[in-house]
Amino acid sequence: MSAGHPRRKARRRGPGAPLTAGDRVMIAVVGTLLFVVLRVLGWTTRKRFIGPGTEQLFARFDAAEPSILAFWHGRMVMMPFAYSGPGACIMNSRHRDGQLISRAIHLLGIEVVRGSSTRGWVGGMRGLLAAHARGRDIVIVPDGPRGPRCRAKSGAIQLARATGAPIYPVAYAATRARVLSRSWDWLSIPLPFTTITYVVESPIRVAREAAPDDLETARLLLESRLNDAVRIADAAAGVAPERTVEYIGTVARQAES
Fold first, then answer.
1. What is the CATH code for 46-249?
2. ω into 190 cis (within 30 of 0)
3. Where are the domains of the chain?
4. Prediction pTM value
5. I want to staple 167 with a disulfide (CB 3.0 to 4.6 A). Which of 204, 218, 229, 257 is the partner?
């Protein structure tokens, strides 16, 4: 190749690549359509709440006392409709798909900060802490964004120690749903005109002076209570027990990062 025609650098299109104008249009259009679909599901589904933490959590919503809500990635679709507090904030990834979801979440009235366990974690945590300082509830997905499925990372525990807020493990199941079992998270998408059962487990508190062993104990407890919530919700919705065991017991192949 001659000196007058330098080789163009290949455009980077990995997770950290900048968004193109086409990406931004796609995010705006598809994210809005996703919002509409979620709204329709919210309007056409019947919801009920059970579990030992339900009354406490709703009392905190009414009193505007900030809490941390935790749920598995595969049970996130209908979680916006379980929320009735004064305002919530969630961390979501910076890549294109994450921003598409962020668009829909924002239209549902939930604040979004950028970051994930794989990219921008420190900035995302700072954003969540700032939201808590403004009185927002914090929403976190302990097995996101890549899994392993139903295995908790430590982010929720770190936030609980830093803020003093209790963590409420939450799960849902629907009497009729489409489960994307080929995806790592087995995303559960309820069908319209179905009944959704939300389960709120007892809260977990983490002392500011907690030692590393205490933090690990709290992480394992969060994982256990989230999986208990899934079992109870699935049983209430009539999900076959072996299906629940397969969802919880089979760790996704993606390596935890």
1. 3.40.1130.10
2. no
3. 46-249
4. 0.86
5. 204
